[in-house]
Amino acid sequence: MFFARPSGQGKGPCDSVSAMDEVLTQQRRSARAEAGTGARVWVAMGALLLVCLVAMAIWRTSERQALAGLAQQGQADLSLASDRITAQLKRYQELAVLMADHPVLSALTEGGAQDEGSGRVEAQQQGAQEKAQAAARALLTAAADKTAALDIAFADTSGQILARATRGGEAGELDLRRAGYFTRAMQGALGTGHGVYGRGALDMPDLLGGDNARAGASEPRPQRAYFYAAPQFSKSGSVVGALIVVVNIDMMEWDWIGGNPAVYFLDEAGEVFISNRRELLFSRADAARVLIPPDGAPALGAPARRWQSGAYDLLRLDWGPYLPTRAMALMRDLPVIGMRGVALIDVGPARRIAGLQTGVFLALCVAFAAMMVPILARRRVLARANAQLERRVARRTRELSNSNAALRREVAERVAAEAALKQAQAELVQAEKLSALGQMSAGISHELNQPLMAIQQFADNGALFLKKGKADVAGENLGRISSLAARAARIIKNLRAFARNESEPMGKVNLVQVIDTAVEMTEARRERDGIICDWEGGAPVYVWGGEVRLVQVFVNLITNAADAMSGQGGGRIRITLEEGRRLSVILRDTGPGIKDSEKIFEPFYSTKAVAAGAAGEDGMGLGLSISYGLVQSFGGVIRGANAPDGGAVFTVELERWNEAKATA
Q: Which residues 6+ apart lie within 8 Å of 81 measured at CB?
């Protein structure tokens, strides 16, 4: 019995499985989407972290590079300031050394060991001593006025001042017994030192010259001074006194105050004694080389802080508007004056450069990220297109492989054709030479006929002379016969080399003789068309080359010129030889000129008609190409151009013969 299922009640098992598959598929898609989103978040965080690390690296690298440049400039400024201080103090050192043995000062220490005598002698000695002191005081005062020294004094070995440029009430008393520089002078060496010079309370406002200095004080304000003590020696070589020069440091700093960069000089105790920033005076450098304001000085702000940036010491100072907030401390020892120079270089420009470069990098990163958003959006489309493209590429690769195989076969065929072409070109070159030889046959016959006829005549004459017993004259005829035979042999040798392309060594060649030979060999060809050749010859001129091949070059040039003028009822060829750095042979004709000067030296380029006449004057276009190659093989140059007033001009430049080059 069958029961019908009411509509609207539960679904069948197939429908449930399909719904479950759809749910699972949707879940997998959601999981992949969530995984992709999570991966993108991690990639973005990693990229952000990488950008931050790179930005920090750029900051540090840029800062250190900028600091290196500032350090180099700062070292130069510190060296300039140090040299300035030492040079100024050097003047006073030389003053002390040169004036110590002045005769006026030597008079103060003479006559101390006198026998006691009468009252009159003692009075005379007292008067002489007063005169010596007055002269010494005048001398020291004049020297102090001219050199701007704070004070100049002369003392004996006990430290008693015998003469000085200033009176005791005008400046501080010099306690030389405890002064290290005076002790050093008593040992026979130049003594140096520094300190505070002048009377009055040694409070810090007075030393710094601040607003709290005592107004209306009757005593002079204490001043910083540098001391030089030069010993004076007696005739026996013992020390009898010392000249003390007091240098006014305040006056030395006057035209240096406020200059850049801030520079100060530390003494052995680590105290700032000289500086172009008065707020730094008498500050102390602790073990970490950090400046500490002096006790009793006006408030300058928090103590300086020091940190390291690579190889550079950096300080943070809040000591007023005339000092950099962040500075690089550069040091230089000055053993000449017993101090150490320090320059505070403002590192603000370096930090600005580093910030600018880092900002540019971050801006580029932001721009790159903005560009990547649409690129990533198109990535999926590109991935699908890439799969299709790969299939097309595979198909195209097969087609290209087939085409490549066909191309290889074609290349092989072309290589074979090129070899055949080269062979044909070689045969054509030889044919061109034989053609030229045929054209010169008349001239060659004439050239050989002359020595043969002369040989016959000299032989007949020699026989007659022998019959008459004139052996000397017969010998001369035999010598002439030998010379003419050598000439005929040379002509035959040239013809054979010209026809068969025989090789000959490079060497010393008489260029005048070569041109003479070429003119003679082409004489019959020129006479046939009424062409005149102007060539004067002259003394031998030697070049580097091969005689037979050079003759071939000039035969080709003269023959081409004659062919160019053959149809105009005469013409003229002028050959001149010019000497310069190279030897130049200029061949000029009165023909129609060159139609295309850029192609005349190319193989198979010719303006002559093929089979132009019975004389065989047709050209294959190889004569000038062969000549071009021969001249280049000699290290020379051949050029062709049209003359301004008509006709063609060919110039052949050849190297001079050099005996040293030939034997090398």
A: 256, 263, 276, 341, 343
**Chain-centre distance for alpha carbon 209:** 53
What are the tens digits of pLDDT across the range 616-636? Answer: 344 556 678 778 888 888 889
- Strand-pair partners of 587: 575, 650
Reported as a single tens digit per residue, the pLDDT across 451-496 is 787 787 778 777 887 888 877 877 887 887 887 788 777 777 766 6
Which helix (H) or strand (E) segment holds residue 543: the answer is strand 542-545
Among candidates 559, 489, 553, 544, which has minimal Cα distance to 664? 544
DSSP H or E run through 97: helix 13-99
Give 525's contacts (C-beta < 8 A, 6+ positions apart): 439, 440, 442, 443, 559, 562
582: CB partners within 8 A, 6+ apart = 636, 653, 654, 655, 656
d(CA 265, CA 334): 9
Look up the pTM and report it: 0.46
Instruction: Kindly state the tokens that stand for 121.
Output: 């002698």
- State the pairing for strand pair 339-346/151-156: unpaired
Phi, psi (rounded to 5 degrees) for 174: -100, 110
The H or E element containing residue 8 is none
Convert the pLDDT of each residue in 311-353 to its tens digit: 777 877 777 777 787 888 888 888 888 888 888 888 878 778 8
Q: Dig out the tokens for 603 from the structure.
A: 């193989």
In this prediction, residue 357 carries a pLDDT of: 82
How far apart are the C-alpha atoms of 390 and 396, rounded to whole Å? 10
Give dist(CA 282, CA 275) in Å, integer: 10
Neighbouring C-beta atoms of residue 360, cutoff 10 Å: 11
Tokens found for residue 473: 């004259």
Q: How far, in Å, CA of 591 to CA of 509, rounded? A: 30
For residue 194, what is the enclosing H or E element?
A: strand 191-197
**Residue entry with tokens 């073990």:** 287
pLDDT of residue 196: 84
Classify residue 406 as exposed, middle or buried by CB count within 10 Å of its CB (0-12, 13-18, 19+): exposed
Q: What is the mean pLDDT of residues 234-251?
A: 89
State the average pLDDT for the chain.
77
Phi, psi (deg, nearest 5) at residue 89: -70, -30
